[in-house]
Amino acid sequence: MNCIICNSLRLSETIWGGYSFKGQKYTIIRCANCGFMFLNPFPEKYILNKIYEGDSYFDNYYAASTGIKNYIDGMTDCNVQHVRIIDFIKNYKKKGSLLDIGCAAGGFLLNAKNSGYDIYGIEPNKRMADYAKDKLGLNVICGTMDDINSLGKSFDVIHAGDVLEHLVDLKKDMEIIKNLLSYNGILVINQPLSYNRSLYNLFLKINMFFKKDRYSQNPPTHLWEFNSSTIVKFLENAGLAIIYYNIFETPSRPITIYKNPGVKNRVSCKIKNFSSVVSNIHILRRFCLGDRALIVCRKR
Ligand SMILES: [Zn+2]
User: Fold this and answer.
1) How far is the CA of 38 from the centre of ligand 1 (A)?
2) Residue 30 Cα, ligand 1 centroid: separation in angstroms?
3) Cα 124–194–49 angle (5° rounding)?
4) Residue 225 burial by Cβ neighbours in a 10 Å radius (0-12, 13-18, 19+)
5) Ligand 1 mean position to 5 CA, how many Å?
6) Mean pLDDT, to the nearest integer, of 159-186?
7) What residues have CB less than 8 Å from 279, skipping those under 6 apart?
């Protein structure tokens, strides 16, 4: 096995453990050369398909910003974030065709449509895609990148929010995404950098050090873990030029998402919020601290 960004064979385990799912352990390993992280063994496609085809993925807590609602019930809670991203996109493209990859039940697309874009969506989960199509009347295809590719369309804006870390054929799908961009089209990546350096991650690292079992019981859906430099290398290798790049730490989810918040939850929330403030301090921005990236790129 080698790193898909730099081809190095020097891979080692990390303090982050990995996932333990249905009797199989998936370990997060790190490339010693470039720092890119990914799962070993790689989850098989049929296992991932089962996770995304079922209801539990979108009904699970991490599908909605509120932490307790399923995706559809929590969809309007995300309007504020969606509108913020759409306003940001307007700086580059005021109108035109917009494709949302992994659009789920269409929360982002609905906001984009209301902002005047000619919208398209692709979503592998049938229940979500049907909701977007039938209940919200959105232009959504249930399928994979290959299905949207076969339409032979190109797009002025492609939005990939929390997507790259889930793509099994990451390099191939990135090639498809790039080729779907129209002349001067932009790709907007809004992406977690879960293990990038930040004050909060330092706190989590110390916690991990004392943990006996470092494997989470969640399904192994995050196949790749980018940091502030590997995301740049990956996009440049894919033939894209970065025209906007911002790394930041998101504030904590509200403490109210916990039914009975303990001391650990409260401390964790406080540290996350402090870490978020620190990541935005002007003189510290050169260190690219934080757990999220907002990137805009174009074809080179
Ligand atoms: Zn590497």
Assistant:
1) 10
2) 8
3) 20
4) buried
5) 5
6) 96
7) 198, 199, 247, 248, 249, 285, 289, 290
Q: From the CA of 270, how far away is ligand 1's center (Å)?
A: 34
Cα 10 to ligand 1 centroid, rounded to whole Å:
8
Start-to-end CA span in the chain (Å): 29
- What confidence tens digit (pLDDT) does each residue in 19-33 have? 999 999 999 999 999
Residues 6+ apart with CB under 8 A from 273: 251, 252
Distance 35 CA to ligand 1 centre (A): 6
Helix pair angle (263-279, 199-209), 10° resolution? 140
Q: How far is the CA of 23 from the centre of ligand 1 (A)?
A: 29
Element (H, E) at 79: helix 79-90
pLDDT band, very low/low/confident/very high, at 152 (cuts 50, 70, 90): confident
Encoded amino acid at 143, one letter? G
Both structure tokens of 296: 């805009």
Tokens of 146: 């290959």
Whether the CB-CB separation of 295 and 269 falls below 8 Å is answered with: no
The tokens describing 261, both together, are 């918040």
Closest CA to 186 of 119, 114, 98: 98
SS3 70: coil
- Let me know: does 249 contact 290? Beta carbons within 8 Å: yes
How many angstroms separate the alpha carbon of residue 178 from the centre of ligand 1? 22
Q: What percent of the chain has pLDDT over 70?
A: 97
Q: Return d(Cα 102, Cα 142) in angstroms, integer.
A: 10
Q: Report CA(6)–ligand 1 centroid distance (Å).
A: 4
